[in-house]
Specification:
The protein is an all-alpha fold and 130 residues long. It is built from five helices and no strands.
């Protein structure tokens, strides 16, 4: 069961990566910087991954309180999100090639936060039974 959840969580993460990257590049086109654009893209991707994980990964453990669950997801995944963001920030700040191609840093950050986000989502967010 946990292995299947991790696989689905990772697949949802791939979608989240695509949303994160697309939103970042859109924000950059609109004039945002590499750091503020990433904050916007992270929040967008986190909302999308919450909804998909709720539906596909933890459908048997979700609750009926959408807003509460979403806030818990953002809070719990804030730990993995911090790991994700600081990995991203360190890479774009120190590697000119990565700063020119920030999707590489988005990918590295996503991988860096994966295990923490999965564990906290499973233990603190999706705890109900349907």
């Amino acid at each position: 069961m946990i292995a299947g959840q991790l696989l689905r969580f990772s697949a949802v993460g791939v979608v989240g990566f695509a949303v994160d990257t697309a939103t970042l590049y859109a924000a950059l086109e609109l004039g945002a910087g590499l750091y503020t654009g990433r904050l916007a893209s992270y929040l967008t991707a986190a909302t999308v991954t919450w909804a998909l994980n709720r539906r596909f990964t933890f459908s048997d453990r979700r609750t009926d309180r959408l807003a509460t669950e979403w806030v818990r997801f953002l809070a719990a995944n804030g730990v993995g999100g911090a790991i994700n963001y600081f990995t991203y920030a360190a890479l774009v700040a120190t590697l000119p090639y990565v700063a020119a191609h920030p999707w590489l840093a988005v990918a590295a950050g996503s991988l860096a936060g994966l295990a923490v986000n999965f564990t906290l989502s499973r233990r603190l967010v999706f705890t109900g039974s349907r």
